[in-house]
Amino acid sequence: MQRLTVPAIVQMKGKEKIVMVATYDFLTASLAEEAGVDVILVGDSVANVMLGYDTTLPVTMDEMLHHTRAVARAVRRCLVVGDMPFLSYQASEEEAIRNAGRFLKEGGAQAVKLEGGKEVVEKVRAIVEHGIPVMGHLGLTPQKVHQLGGYKVVGRNEEVAEKLMEEAKELEKAGIFSLVLECVPWQLAKRLTDELHVPTIGIGAGPYCDGQVLVLHDIVGLTPRSPKFVKRYANLREEVLRCLREFREEVKEGRFPTLEQSYE
Q1: CATH classification at residue 71
Q2: Which of 15, 88, 140, 216 is placed for a possible disulfide with 99 were both Cys, Cβ 3.0 to 4.6 Å?
Q3: Residue 14 in contact with residue 90, Cβ under 8 Å?
């Protein structure tokens, strides 16, 4: 089975929609691989989904590498992208390069993602120059949740929209191979998609991006609540609860295990 490469993802722009899911462990990554997903993002959203934090800010490099290794062991075809956590790239170019490299060397990823616009352009350029593919991320950038004042749509204001356009083009010049657009108006996402040469991957950014990403746990309905932009394709939360309650009941009543489920 041939692995999807960064150039292959870039070449999909305008020809084939890119499917990306965020997931964090061997089991769910193997399911994404079997389903034919193109890209797996080991997102810093692991902080919220798996580790119980209110924001993505507390997750560490060591934790991100732990989850990235688990995902990388599960896949042979998908492109694996490691999400650089808060303060793993902001302090200096040297630190950004070193931590990005750890995702490839220690985590088994083929690329990294980092958030931000003009403030990270030079770091993006430096990382790319050291042979590490970079996915950009504009719009709602959760690592700046306190600065933004919460999770909200970004780019409705014309001035902010123009700033995002400018920053996207600067990131493209710096060498990103794709750009996540999170919670931006669909009109702006379409314009960015039309004007950029690299693929855009939307999350809450409408139907005109070159691809889409959602968290796997949201897709299958394991999370208790989901944002407006999520489509839940199942309600596994209720099914898991049903199974666990039935298991608890059978154990309490002595109906599990039966002799047929026991060794002699």
Answers
A1: 3.20.20.60
A2: 88
A3: no
